[in-house]
């Protein structure tokens, strides 16, 4: 079966512009695991492999 006859839609950027500020500490947030997260408030080992 040959599935080369379909087109994928273009990817839409999930975030654009400057990151929001953290409501607790006021630092700029980072885009982590598909959402905004504050690295200073959550620790530097924040990521998908550490939870």
Secondary structure elements and their pairing?
Layout: E1 30-32, E2 35-37, H1 39-42
Antiparallel strand pairs: 1-2
Q: How would you sum up this structure, described in words?
A:
This protein is largely without helices or strands and 51 residues long. It has one helix at residues 39-42, and strands spanning 30-32, 35-37. A two-stranded antiparallel sheet has the order 1-2. A hairpin with a 2-residue loop joins strand 1 (30-32) and strand 2 (35-37). The longest helix has 4 residues, at 39-42. The protein is elongated. The termini are far apart.
Helix/strand order: EEH
* Helical residue percent band: under 10%
Per DSSP E runs of 2 or more residues, the count of β-strands stands at 2
Give the helix tally: 1
The percentage of residues in β strands lies in 5-15%
Low-confidence stretches: none
Strand order of the largest sheet: 1-2
* Shape label: elongated
Through-space gap between termini: 40 Å
Largest sheet: 2 strands, antiparallel
Task: Output the radius of gyration.
Answer: 17 Å
Protein structure class? little secondary structure
Short précis:
With 51 residues, the protein is mostly loops. It contains 1 helix and 2 strands; from the N terminus they run ββα.
Question: What would the keywords be for this entry?
Answer:
1 helix; two-stranded antiparallel ribbon; elongated; little secondary structure; 51 residues
